[in-house]
Design brief:
With 193 residues, the protein is an alpha/beta fold. It contains five helices and eight strands; from the N terminus they run H-E-E-H-E-H-E-E-E-H-E-E-H.
């Protein structure tokens, strides 16, 4: 697993568990629902070697697309965009939230027709990625696609551009009143708290 290519799902899941990305237990989600799995993608980013391996895999499907710029939404996409861009020989940017949309700050610019790849750590609804796509469309960028570390929709998300996910998962969540984990007496954790 030195170049990050041809890793199977089992090895990738093992790496993501080892680095604390995939957590098992009983978790309170931001939505108020409960789940037996929680993804904390930022845990991977504290390990540069593993982050590089994962980003190499994220870049691989787009290596022949002549990508000029890689962009991700802050915060999850900041380091990922940098590392994926490094593998593609491209420029790295990140978009930041402002007034319900994503914008470029810090003097970042994208030229009309510039070929851009969007990256994200995980998607559930695709809301942040869609805001980046809207930004790019408004700037006249040529959107090459989206590269995602983990697709929580198990492939059901369609944002209208080529999308590649390293891992697709269908993560069940439960209403607190009918949560089987609660009925088993498993302690509820608040991983974002």
């Amino acid at each position: 697993m030195t170049d990050g290519k041809n890793i199977d799902d089992k090895k990738l899941i093992g790496l993501l568990k080892k680095t604390g990305v995939i957590m098992e237990g009983h978790f309170l989600l931001t939505s108020g629902r409960h789940s037996g799995l929680f993804l904390q993608c930022s845990q991977l980013l504290q390990y540069p070697e593993y982050t590089g391996q994962v980003c190499s895999m994220m870049a691989e499907p787009f290596k022949n697309e002549n990508i000029e710029t890689v962009i991700g939404p802050a915060m999850g996409g900041v380091i990922l965009s940098y590392e994926v861009a490094r593998f593609l020989g491209a420029r790295a940017l990140f978009a930041e939230p402002a007034d319900g949309k994503m914008i470029l700050r810090r003097g970042f610019q994208i030229n009309k027709g510039e070929k851009v790849l969007v990256v994200e750590d995980a998607v559930s609804t695709g809301g942040s990625v869609q805001k980046v796509l809207d930004l790019l469309s408004n700037l006249g960028a040529d959107i090459a696609g989206i590269s995602i570390m983990i697709d929580r929709t198990s492939g059901r998300l369609d944002l209208g551009v080529p999308t590649r996910a390293l891992l697709s998962m269908d993560i069940a969540s439960f209403d607190p009143d009918s949560c089987p984990l609660c009925s088993k007496g498993i302690a509820l954790q608040k991983p974002k708290g």
